[in-house]
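Lecture 7 notes. Example A: sequence first, then its structure tokens.
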Amino acid sequence: MKKLSAMVLIFGLAATCLAQSISPAVVSSAGAEGQAGAVQVSWTVGENSVSTLTSSTVVITEGFHQPFLAVESISSYDLSAEVKVYPNPTQASLWLEIERQGASVLVITLIDVSGKLISSQSSTSPSDRLEFDLTGLATGVYSLHLVDPATHASRSFSVQKIQ
């Protein structure tokens, strides 16, 4: 009887216990998470060299910061306009000529390699010629982005500023 009672007690406890679960957790010396609108950033200070093993059903990766990343869709809309950027490379002024159908707003931004906004202009004309003055900027590579906010159509150019 004691054996039966002990077995019932053991099986009863085993049935009510929960097993371990695997969830994303990080044990590191430094790190943080932040969110602004739809953008979420998380980071940790960790290993600089990791390897990944894969099979048909399992992926195992060394390292400890492995956030879930699911890309549902990426929409790409090409800006339907004829765009000329010249001279490139340039020492002083950068000219932008735009020929397009319609007269929706077009936002043009010049950004440096660190992501800092250098200049921003708007165009509402189907045919426009804009100047960006680069004389006070450091030598380097800059990005020129053209975006139609209504359709999210865009086009980007790399611009080199020389001495």
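Example B, a different protein, same format:
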Amino acid sequence: MSKLEQINITYDPVQDRLLLKVNSGEAGEFRIWLTRRYTEMLANLLVEVMDKAGGIQDIASHHDTINQLKGGAFDKDYAWDPDSATGNQSSPLLPLGPEGILGFRINYTQSDDGNARFELLPELGLGINLALNRTLIFMMYNLLEQGVAQADWNIHFPQQHKDPVH
């Protein structure tokens, strides 16, 4: 997958699922549906990775994370422009199809450059590959928390912050 530009998670009450959209610019938009079970599995893995990287409080107070937050990381509306991805309006680039895929399994590895590599996969076929540094892992975790709050699934997040980090 090419360069990550933006990630968005929204709750769909009809599906009773979260929709993860990954904007990768010229490579298009990748969509994956997250069930309650899959969301818990992903959240637990993100916490495990954050714990290995110093813990959520350390990551949250790191200057890279603070700069991202001050730069409006959570204030920007999700904006994927299919025209910029394909060069025309008639066929937006959606490599996993317009409906996306249903998340079923997750593969995780740590790369030599220190980034965490996640493969978010359906039961069969292709999925989404994400290489995230510790700041982006923290951001992804926060997006999951926000999505679960919209869904009202009553999921207990292992590192749920009681007090605001910033």
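Note on Example B: Residues 83-91, 162-166 have pLDDT under 50 and may be disordered. The CA atoms of residues 2 and 27 lie 6 Å apart.
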